[in-house]
Amino acid sequence: MSAALRLDRAVREFVTVWIADQLFGVEVRAIQDVFPLRAVTRVPKAPPEIAGVLNLRGRIVTAIDTRVRLGLPPRPEGLAGAMALGVEHNGEAYGLVIDRIGDVLKLPDSDFEANPVNLDPAWRAASEGVYRLEDRLLLVLDLKRMLDVGPAGAVK
Questions:
Q1: Can you name the CATH fold of 8-146?
Q2: Nearest in space to 149 (alpha carbons), one of 59, 73, 54, 48
Q3: Distance CA 96, CA 63 (A)
Q4: Which residues pair with 62 in a beta bridge?
Q5: Which residues have C-beta within 8 Å of that of residue 23, sequence separation ≥ 6?
Q6: What secondary structure, in 3-state letters, does the chain show?
Q7: Contact in structure between 144 and 153 (CB atoms under 8 Å)
Q8: Exposure check for the chain: N or C terminus, fewer CB within 10 A?
Q9: Cα–Cα distance measured from residue 32 to residue 28, given in angstroms and rounded to the nearest whole number
């Protein structure tokens, strides 16, 4: 089989998540856990996107509010009923707070596109690119940027 033919068949596997009414994708290989948020403790003077910390099976996990990171309004019900994607970055454990989990999708690399030029700048900064699905756009989250928490609160 030729290299070009193998590249055409290359796929990426994503866990889809809903944040507000938008569908996002995170590569399966980057996710270590999916869990409901419970007993989140606020951290004094933390940047606004830090929802707090929690204990997950004996490990302290920093909860990142993806709505704040993306410039979206807060969840009307607060963190009640929210889920989190457990990921690791630079040796630290994080939970990306999401509204709900979706499906696992296998998408061909050949369908991956750059971010649209008219995409909101905060979203463009947090996205690696997009896949055009049948009825919507799937934005692929750039985890390194989403986890780059600083005093300003916006995605860098």
A1: OB fold (Dihydrolipoamide Acetyltransferase, E2P) (2.40.50)
A2: 48
A3: 6
A4: 53, 94
A5: 16, 17, 102, 133, 136, 137, 138, 139
A6: CCHHHHHHCCEEEEEEEEECCEEEEEEHHHCCEEEECCCCECCCCCCCCEEEEEEECCEEEEEEEHHHHCCCCCCCCCCCCCEEEEEEECCEEEEEEECEEEEEEEEEHHHEECCCCCCCHHHHHHEEEEEECCCCEEEEECHHHHCCCCCCCCCC
A7: no
A8: N
A9: 8
What's the whole-model pTM score? 0.86
Question: Could you report the per-residue pLDDT of 47-56, keeping only the tens digit for each?
Answer: 999 999 999 9
d(CA 50, CA 64): 5
Matching residue, tokens 């630290």: 92
Which structure tokens are listed for 17? 């998540």
Q: Centre a 10 Å sphere on the Cβ of residue 16 and count the other Cβ atoms it contains.
A: 17
Q: Where are the domains of the chain?
A: 8-146
